[in-house]
Design a protein that fits this description.
This protein is mainly alpha-helical. α3 crosses α17 and α6 packs across α7. It is globular and about 70 Å long. It is built from 24 helices and two strands. It starts with a helix and ends with a helix. Strands 1-2 form a two-stranded antiparallel sheet.
Length: 492
């Protein structure tokens, strides 16, 4: 199989060819950017040529008027690499991994359900996705150290978070945007989505747990067994698991700072006031802190409260904590810069692949074929029974999730159309939202247009074709479970 870059570029070429075949069209939008149902009109065709194909990855990185660039995500990935480079320089992570492997010796598989549930909660509550990039360099050595492979490590975070997104409960980027478009509360349908979350998370855990059990008994059953020896060297598995040395005081301090960094990141990304308008503690505290004479000026009056953070803020966090670790560990400035730059270099391919994946969306948007595909869906879903309507809505959102990987972008682009169609079919708006979220989460488990998927696989050195092969049965199980759930919920 060709590399991930080649596969992504081939998809860009295919999408460009489709812009010559599929008629161009567009919808009118309101001031908020939401599509207005019934306003579709054909426009002049804008086929994408060779120039556009090769410009797509460039625009995918920096962005243009129609597509947001991936630069903020790519920079976050690079700084994560620098942060991990500094942490690895202290050997604290190696010692910590050794400690975990020794602690869970004989009960290694307990880690799988515990971690997957935590990641699913993150995906369901605030759309955790790109942030998991930071966890793979830690998860891969741990999972390989206890006898599994890097596929298990990728699945724990990637499947965990995306199944959480599939059954988003209060995710503001999916549930919030879609609910606002339909003028309903994000809490509508919360009970049924919680049930879907429990079911799909359980199915996923069983699937990953079974595979881990099989390869633990017989490592040759691993789909990536042929690269295991190389992976063990690449991720320094032997050094990290055979080391019986005790951690020094400075290394323990680094581990605490390492964990604290991720806790702060999660607290910063969860939109507390969106979940509950009374949860204003972090806003109040930040306002009080920055209002203190001198201290407010020293810290910076533009400090963003936890709960309002995005990629700029969490990138700053990892940069800041890298410097803190340097001081705590008494690392020399030269050693720090060398470790930070080497760490960034290790993640450069991951940062670039996110931009190339975004290039697919660039060609689609600039070719103006999204509106036409939406119009076909609008016409095809009209006048169906409740169960048939909601299942076909789910199926309709599968290709749409491929074309628009952003959950919030997909909701803003389509919910103003599909929501009213659901009303005519006597299907509640909250169930339409559940169908849209389920399709988006399902597709984002495997789509090469997702920087989350391609970034995770790049870190683990797993070919996307191997990932598709491994995911095939789970995708079928999740599809069937979701269709049955939606069909039953529509008539209750």
């Amino acid at each position: 199989m060709p590399s991930a870059y080649t596969i992504l570029f081939i998809i860009i070429v295919i999408i460009a060819i489709l812009t010559w075949i599929i008629p161009a069209g567009t919808y009118a939008t309101d001031k908020a950017g939401n599509i207005i149902s019934g306003t579709y009109k054909a426009v002049s065709s804008k086929p994408q040529g060779i120039w556009d194909v090769f410009m797509a990855p460039v625009i995918g990185m920096v962005g243009d008027k129609k597509t947001e660039g991936a630069i903020s995500v790519s920079l976050f990935i690079l700084v994560i690499g620098g942060f991990l480079g500094v942490v690895n320089k202290t050997d604290a992570l190696n010692e910590g991994i050794s400690s975990i492997v020794r602690r869970y010796k004989g009960r290694e598989k307990q880690l799988i359900p515990i971690l997957m549930i935590l990641f699913a909660i993150g995906g369901s509550t605030y759309g955790m996705g790109e942030e998991t990039i930071a966890f793979y360099p830690l998860l891969i050595p741990v999972m390989m150290g206890v006898g599994f492979d890097s596929l298990v490590a990728v699945a724990i975070a990637l499947v965990g978070t995306q199944v959480g997104c599939l059954a988003s409960t209060v995710n503001p980027f999916a549930t919030g945007v879609a609910s606002q478009t339909l003028n309903i509360s994000p809490g509508d349908g919360l009970g049924s989505r919680l049930l879907l979350l429990i079911i799909t998370t359980a199915v996923s855990i069983i699937y990953v747990y079974h595979y881990a059990s099989v390869i633990q008994k017989d490592p040759t059953k691993s789909l990536i067994y042929d690269q295991r020896a190389e992976d063990e060297k690449r991720f320094a598995i032997k050094a990290r698991t055979d080391d019986d040395h005790q951690m020094t005081g400075r290394q323990k301090a680094v581990i605490w700072l390492f964990g604290l960094t991720f806790v702060i990141m999660i607290l910063g990304l969860i939109p507390w006031t969106n979940l509950n308008s009374h949860w204003t503690f972090f806003d109040t505290f930040t306002k009080w802190l920055t209002g203190i004479p001198f201290l407010g000026n020293l810290l910076g009056h533009d400090m963003a409260p936890l709960g309002t953070w995005y990629f700029n803020e969490i990138t700053m966090l990892f940069l800041f904590m890298s410097v803190v670790i340097m001081w705590v560990y008494h690392m020399k400035e030269g050693e720090f810069m060398d470790a930070f730059m080497k760490g960034m270099a290790d993640f450069l391919s991951v940062a670039i692949i996110v931009a190339v994946a975004r290039g697919i969306q660039v060609v689609m948007n600039n070719g103006m074929i999204t509106g036409t595909v939406l119009h076909w869906g609008e016409m095809g879903l009209h006048g169906l029974s409740q169960s048939v309507f909601i299942i076909l809505t789910y199926i309709f959102y599968i290709p749409m999730s491929f074309l628009i990987p952003s959950t919030s972008g997909l909701a803003a682009a389509t919910m103003g159309i599909i929501g009213p169609l659901g009303h005519f079919a006597h299907v509640s708006g909250s169930l339409v939202i559940t169908a849209y979220q389920a399709a988006s989460g399902w597709v984002n488990l495997i789509t090469p247009t997702s920087g989350i998927v391609m970034g995770a696989l790049a870190i683990a050195h797993v070919n996307v074709s191997v990932w598709w092969k491994w995911m095939l049965k789970l995708m079928i199980y999740l599809f069937i479970v979701t269709c049955v759930f939606l069909g039953v919920a529509a008539v209750l």
